[in-house]
Amino acid sequence: MxxxxxxxxxxxxxxLVAGAAEDGMEKTFGAGRxxxxxxxxxxxxxxxxxxxxxxxxxxxxxxxxxxxxxADYDVVVSTYPIASExxxxxxxxxxxxxxxxxxxxxxxxxxxxxxxxxxxxxxTHPESVEEVERIAGRGSAVAVRGLxxxxxxxxxxxxxxxxxxxxxxxxxVVAVSGGGWGVGDLEGAVGAALGLECVRVLLLCGRNEPLxxxxxxxxxxxxxxLGFVDDMPTLLAASDVLVHSTAGLTVLEAHxxxxxxxxxxxxxxxxxxxxxAFARFGLAEVVRSxxxxxxxxxxxxxxxxxxxxxxxxxxxxxxxxxxxxxxRELSAAHT
Length: 335
What we know:
- By secondary structure, the protein is an alpha/beta fold.
- The protein has helices spanning 15-30, 35-47, 50-70, 81-93, 129-136, 158-164, 186-194, 209-215, 232-238, 249-256, 270-281, 290-302, 309-313, 318-333; strands at residues 76-78, 100-104, 120-123, 141-143, 172-177, 199-204, 223-226, 241-244, 260-263, 285-286.
- The chain folds into two domains: 10-144 and 317-333, no CATH class; 151-312, Rossmann fold (3-Layer(aba) Sandwich).
- The strands form two sheets. A six-stranded parallel sheet has the order 7-6-5-8-9-10, with helices on both faces. A four-stranded parallel sheet has the order 1-2-3-4, covered by helices on one side.
- The longest helix has 21 residues, at 50-70.
- 42% of the residues are buried.
- The model has no long low-confidence stretch (mean pLDDT 89).
């Protein structure tokens, strides 16, 4: 048994860092403006030699707050890359005596997610282990289950998922998602899907309520416009294809359930590097233009549905690894 606290780390980053990392990005990119600025910011802070200076500034601005927040626990699990970077540095310097795990839900572009000072990296994609170990050292990463909702390991059957969503079995269903912020060329994706025969579209606008309201009446009854969806296992189990703009965990979840994936509509910043990895590992087809999207949809709809739930169910449990790490540290402290 263990007690767990969930701590929102963003307020602990300070007003300057939190504003740049969360509020400013959501307001800018959720509204679809200034994608070029995100690209430039990502290049400066994650790709060029300026990354090291950015990491040092981040550490100096946030270390004391994060150290104070983490010091009283037996083990800390970070799900936020900025926090993982700072906690890894604190751990490496010896300032933080508590073991740290980084829970990594992206496939690639894992600077900030991974750090040599982090005791254990828990990755959702087995393909990510190699990149993490290049950054943090051999044996520092384990592919795990338990970082998605439990429903993805016991999804409803295809027919049952269709029944729950009141979707007829004879239609082909394309889910179009802009991630939590509702970004990317969603209208272009919907238009390409509607150009095909016998297709229904589930359009996911995330938490972008202005977008959902704007698109609510923009299409005919073949399109169902949704906000944030709580039951993604059912939605993806009922869908034949997912067109997704922001990479991340939703692509993996669709892959687990055999829903074919197309990455399209927002290939900037870290998404660009994830797209390269999707293509390299065969996890998604990457499309960069509207003109190619229709053909990609036809190809995906014709591909067989292959479930991958069983292979992910066999992975070690993230929770068990975290508890084991905490127990080892406690035992060492008492010897």
